[in-house]
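Hi R.,

As promised, here are both runs. First protein below:
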Amino acid sequence: MNVLVAGGAGYIGSHCVRQLSAAGHRPVVLDNLVYGHRTAVPAAVPFEQADLGDEKAVAEVLKRHKIDVVMHFGAYCYVGESVTDPLKYYLNNSAAAVHLLSAMLGAGVTKFVFSSTCATFGVPSKLPMGEDLPQVPINPYGQTKLDVENALRALAHAGKISFAAFRYFNAAGAAEDGSIGEDHKPETHLIPLAIDAAVGRRTSLQLFGTDYPTPDGTCLRDYVHVDDLSRAHIAVFDKLSTPGAAFFYNLGTGTPNSNREVIRAVEKATGKKINVVESARREGDPPALYADSAKAKRELNWKVKFPDIDSIVATAWKWHKSHPEGYGDR
């Protein structure tokens, strides 16, 4: 199929582009390069630079490339920034996504795959986290993702589209061959921050909270490899043929790792000791978040290739070791 990957020059989107090609599909990338990297997109993959909110430009791309399905990875994802600058997130994550959907309907494209987040649930009422939990976001980032989910529900109910929304947990790792990986400016994710501290690109790693009700006192999180995420998004294509179809899946390994366990995995991969500075808890950090992904495994035959933190960190280290400056375009 011809697949438009919105945000396809970003971290998760660029990995999905390669998985699409490997599965025999024809990806087309649309990205405004605010956070994406042009060099993350293979030269053979068509690239269109445009804003999702530009309905005319997006509709033209959809028609010219005869797009069959749209995958949306084009959201802003800094939770803290969403609190301090919520309008930025409502404009890009909610409003621009609605414009994208409008452009799709105008171009006759009715299949949609949405990159959502476990942040739509807020603080979970039970663990592991299944799809049926109450959705009570505690920050604008999670709320804007839920806004799009609700718009998708309404459109599917009206028979306008079919869609799947994937709520995943801590995306991590890099392509197995080390060709593409994680390069955020600023970087906020634990694994790349720990790697930077291990190799001396930063003097220390700040560890927020050591008094949580967890085995070692630090937060527990569910790390899922970026390529495993990508394969789930592609596996759902066959279920989108029926107008009005609506699917929701939580994606994670189901086995959480503590912050200290992640730090030890990075030290093991790099062979370097990390200077850890212990700090107070950050406001809004739940003690534990991890997924129940039984539904995705059952309905999509989704299999996790990277089930443990050591295998995930090994791929991240391969990327960072060979690309110490990331893509080098910022």
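And here is the second one, sequence first, then its structure tokens:
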Amino acid sequence: MATQAAVKRESVSDEQIQREVLDELKWEARVQPNEIGVAVKDGIVVLTGWVDSYTKKWAAENAAHRVRHVKAVVNEIKVRFPPGAERSDVDIAADAVRALECNSLVPMENLDVTVSDGWVTLRGEVEWQYQKEEADAVVRRIPGVKGITNLIIVKPRVTPAELKQKIEQALIRSAQLDAQNVTVDVQGSKVILKGTVRSWAEKEEAERAAWSAPGITEVENLIVVV
């Protein structure tokens, strides 16, 4: 009975979620709330409207995801540039390649860039998840970009067994963590952490160490604070 009562207390209406998403958009300095329309059905948020940069579209989507009880976000916001601000695909592609080449975190030699009607598609392979995310962030800031499809694959050069060993060694090296009660399981590019720690900070440190391994695309942190 207590569990059912807790579920009832946690349930919120679509109208409340809509209000909270609108409030979060007002808090997000990179967008103007009057640019974005918000509809909610069964916890799924649909964003509509027009903005003048892809960065704004991305920021609005992130803002909606930050709101509790949001199950998913459908981003139907359109990017429409002011007269004279449209850029050719050739210019966008040239800027994207140049920006990626100048970023020391991104191995541009392993990536391909395609631009069609302002939409950038990234392909290739990298060894680290942060490199994939950094490539996305670099292109996102280029003027004229209307959207990004990031098809970059995170592919480590080490085996799952070697990944497991590297993560375990990183946990042992950490001065902020007592690693003796933490276990590591690597399934492909996913890491599952289990065990017990003494504080939330230790739990977060274990997850940070797992993310530092090459090729990891997901970390499931099941560690319990006791």
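A quick note on the second one: The first strand starts at residue 36 and ends at 41. Let me know what you think.

Best,
J.
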